[in-house]
Design a protein that fits this description.
Blueprint (H helix, E strand, L loop, with lengths): L2 H19 L22 E2 L6 E4 L30 E2 L15 E6 L6 H4 L3 E7 L2 E6 L4 E7 L3 E8 L2 E8 L10 E7 L2 E9 L9 E10 L5 E7 L18 E5 L5 E3 L2 E9 L3 E10 L3 H11 L5 H16 L2 E4 L3 H14 L4 E2 L6 E3 L6 E3 L5 E2 L1 E2 H4 L3 H8 L1 H18 L5 E3 L2 E2 L7 H11 L7 H11 L13 H7 L4 H5 L6 H21 L3 H11 L2 H4 L39 H5 L6 H7 L3 H13 L25 H14 L15 H11 L1 E2 L7 E4 L6 E5 L9 E8 L5 E6 L2 E2 L4 E3 H6 L2 E6 L1
Parallel strand pairs: 29-33
Antiparallel strand pairs: 1-2, 2-3, 4-9, 5-6, 6-7, 7-8, 8-17, 9-16, 10-11, 10-15, 11-12, 12-17, 13-14, 13-16, 18-28, 19-22, 20-21, 23-24, 24-25, 26-27, 27-32, 28-29, 30-31, 30-33
Helix pairs in contact: 5-20, 7-8, 8-9, 9-10, 9-13, 13-14
Length: about 750
Amino acid sequence: MNLRKFYSFVVACLFAFSAQAQDYTKYVNPFIGTTNYGATNPGAIAPRGMVSVVPFNTSGGDTSFEKDSGWLSQVYEYTNTFFTGFSHVNLSGVGCPDLGAVIVMPTTGDVNIHPLQYGSSLSDQKAQAGLYEAHIDKYNVDAKVTATQRAGISKFSFPAGKANLLLNLGQALSNESGAMVKVVNNQEIEGMRMVGSFCYNNPKTIYPVYFVMKVNKKADKTAVWQQHKYNDGPEAAWMEAYNGQQRIIEDAYYPIIGDSLGTIFSYEFAEPTELEVKVGISYVSIENARKNLEAEISNVPFDEVAKRAKERWNDVLSTIEVDGGTDDEKTVFYTALYHTMIHPNIMSDINGEYPEAKTRRTKHTDGDRYTIFSLWDTYRNLHQLMTLAYPEQQLNMVNTMLDIYDETGWLPKWELNGTETFTMVGDPAAIVVADTYLRGLDQFDENKAFEAIMKSAYPVEGGNPVRPCIDSYIKHNYVPVDDELEDKLWASVSTSQEYYVADFGIAQFAKALGKDDKYKEFSERADGYKKLLDPDTKFLRPRYADGSWYADFDPNAGANFTHNVGYAEGNAYQYNLMVAQDMPGLIKSFGSKKVFINRLDEIFDTDQFDMANEPDMNYPFIYNYIKGQEHRATERVHELRKKYFTTKPDGIAGNDDTGTMSAWVVFSMMGIYPDAPAVPHYTITVPEFDEVTIHLDKKFWDNDQLVIKKTGGKTNKIKSIKVDGKTLKGYFISHKDLVAAKTLEIITY
C-alpha cells in the first residue's frame, strides 16, 4: 500500500469510528408530541419494536384527557398526572384507541387492586431513545424501563418494607375484554389479553396478545384477582360476598379466565431492593412469548439491555448525519427521524412465526413480518423516506403487503396486527407499491404486485372492500355524491381524489412493466379530477351522477375534523390542490397561473392550510412549479416547520400519524421532499442544515453516500442548484439521479 492510500485508509477508518462513536440519541426527545393530540409517548422502544414499555396515565384521575371520558387514542398525555402502570403493547401517533395492554404497576404497603385507588403521580420523568425513567411518588419507587424488539424490562427500586407487583389485564386502552392468566411459579406469570376493534368500525377485528412475565426475585406471596359481573337474579343471594366485586385468590397456580383479571406478587424487603421485571410478547402463543423473552433478554441485566437499545438507535439514526444548525434544530430533526422508525413495526417472533392475516393461523417468514400500516397517511412521504434511506426495511414492508394479499385476497388498507380495519378512504397500498418500484427498489414479485393492484382497481362480486363504489367511479370517472348521500361510502370528493392518485400510480407502474393498454386506461381514469373541478369556483366539489353540482356547498365547512359532505377530515380548501400527481395539469385547469397562485396564497393567508393533516401537506412545495415563485416554497416550509414542529411536548402539529408528520419534518429540513406519490422525484428547498449526509445502502443503490450542502449567502432564496458540480435546471431531481449523486449543492444568494 503506498503512502497516499495508507493515509486515505486511516482517514476513512477515523471517519467511520467518529460516526459510530457519535451519540445521536442525545438529540432525541421522546416527550415531543405527547400533548396537542400528537399521540406519541415517551416510553422505551427499540427501532421497529413490537414491544414498548410506556407509562399509562390516561385512565382515571382528574383530567380532561381520560380514555373513557372522550375520544382518546394514546396511553400517555404529557399534561396528565395519574399513573396506573407500564403497558407493554402500544401504538404511537394514531387517531383511534387500541392496545395499551399488559400493564405492570409497582406499589408498596398493603395490597390494593383498584386502579383508581392505587394510581400515583410521577415526578422526575426522563426519556431518551430506548429508556424512560421516573419516580412513582405515592410509593417512593424509582422506575426505569427499556426494551428490545420483542420484550420489555423494568427496574423498580423499592424502599424497605412491603412491596407489590401488580399485573393488570383488565385495564387497557382497548375497550375489548377477555383475558387468561396463570401464575406459573413465584417468579413467572403467563397469559393473554384480548384487544382490537380499532376505530370501532369492525367488531370482528379482535385478537389476543400473549405474554410471559418473569421477575428476578421470588415473591413471598402470589395471588390472582378477578372481577365478577353483577347479578340481580336468584343467583345474587348465593354470591353475596363477591357479586359485582373483585375477589383475590391466593396461591392459584392454574389458568383463570375472565373479563378483568390481574395478578399480585408480594414481597417483604428488609432493605431497599431492586426488582427486574421482564415481559416477553407474542401475537402467536404463550410459548413464543417465552421464546422471545429468553432469546432477547433472559440472561441480560437491565443496564445492558438499555445500553444495547441506545446502540441500536444510534445505528439507525446515524444513517442521516446533519452538520450546522442549532441543538434545538437537531433535536427536532432526530426526534422526527426517531418517530419514523416506530411504525410499521415487527410482528414476527424470534422464530419467524406470525399470525396469518384474517385467520390468525400460524405462519413462518424468513424475513421480517411488519404490521401497523396506516397507509392513507404514510403513502405520502414515510415510505419514500424508507426507500431512500432504509431500503431493506421498505422492501420487507412491501413483501409483507404482498403476503397479506396472499392471505386475504387484498392488499392492506389500514392493517393492524393481522387485522384489516378499513380505516380512511382510497387505495393507498397501490400507491406505495408503485412508488417503491418506480424509485428502483424492485426486488419483489412485480407480477404478483400488479395482479394485487388490479384486483383492488375493479368491481368484484360481493363488493370491493378496498374501493367502495368503484363501479360508479369507473362509470362517471368520479364518485357521485349520490353514493355518499345514500350511505354507500364516506367523502365522495376525497375518495375520488384518492382513487385518482392510486390510478396514476397504477398507470406509471403499468408503463414500467410494458403494459401499454393498462397505462392508457388508468391514465384516463387519473385525469377524472378535472370533472370535479368547478370552473366557476375553482374547487373540486361534490357532483351528482347526472352531472349537476351538489348545491349545499360551503368550501369552509369540514375544517377541524368536523363532518362535511364530500370531504374526509378536511374542507374544500384543504383538498383543493390535492392533485400532486399532475400539478402542471391542475395549474392549467385553473385557466392561468395567476388564478392558481391566488388560490394557493389564499389557502395560506386565510388560515385554510392545515399542517395537522395529510391532504394539503405538500402545498408549500407547490410554489416550485411556478416560475418566479420558487423562493416562496422555502419561505413557507421554514415558516411552517418553525411554527408547528418544536422541542416542546406540543411540538408536533397534531397527530403524528405513525410517523407521517415526522417524515415531513425530516425531508423538509434536509431540503428535499417527495411531493408527488408515484412520481419518483424530489422537489428542492433550502435545507435547514449546512450539510446533510445520507449514508446509502450499497446493496440497493450504486452509491454509498449523498451529501446535501447549503452554500452561498445567508438568504433562503436559491441562486442555483448543482449536482456533482453540474447546474440543475429547475427545482426537481429524480430519485435515480439523487441516489447516484455524491453532492447536491443548494447555493443561496
